[in-house]
Model the fold of this input.
Amino acid sequence: MFNIQKAVREKIWCKVALIAPSGGGKTFGALRMATGMREKLAEMGEETKILMANTEASRGLYYANEFDYDIIDIPSPHNPEKYVELIDFAVEQGYKILILDSSSHEWEGKGGCLEIHSLAGGTYQAWGKVTPRHNEFLYAIADSPIHIIATMRGKDQYEMEKGETGRTTVKKLGVGAKQREGVEYEFTCSFLIDQASSMARFQKDNTHLFENRGEFKISEKDGKEIIEWANSGDAVYIAPVRHEKTEQEVLAEVNTESFDICSRVGSKTEGLMDIVKRYNVNSPKKIKSLDDAKRLLEELKTFEKELNK
Done:
């Protein structure tokens, strides 16, 4: 049966993508936009804080004297599940604005989707194991009741440019995101930022706020306008309920993460298999108890961390 009803615009949790080559000002722009969002929410009587999820080492603290925000580091491996867990954590802690800086690590970082695919054999068929995990990351962004600004590294391309003096210079261009092809279209609006000028231009804009603006420098004003647009609906947003995973599904995910660590470290690394064999198996994927699987995963994470010191 089909149920026809009057279309009513809901209030919206906005998802914004900022894409730029290295040095383009993604983090600074994200903080300016997020600050505007917070200020507009405060004007509307909704006090909140900004949480930055940081993969960029100490760079996440560069602007701590210019902006008011909390920060949490996302250490490797940067698998999709870690990002989903982080988004859920931010919602549970009561944040309404989350910056993912950067979401490119989920795709191309250590332990990210490209590495998972390689460890799974690197074949076309191996994508069948990777794509569902990546999709869960995208669903978490789209469905979570929180405003998200996701920065993405740009795919670098260079062009020769002759200036007014006749001198030739090399200009770095951003021609798309270092993420899965087309990911920028999963967002409410997405922007490409020029590396040299830090000027942004829209790539997708469901808000219609930026369509006729041309190039501009992202500011607090843009964050305020996005929040005003997001709250212009009449109906209250009801977040979709994501699939509640069964114990067996969680077990499979935990065992897969342990297997990924073993593949990265190498099974011949001294001491690795001793840890696994303490659980009376010769492969993490053969563990049947979820509690044992979680304990093994924590041991393997500690083992890998010690190796990387």
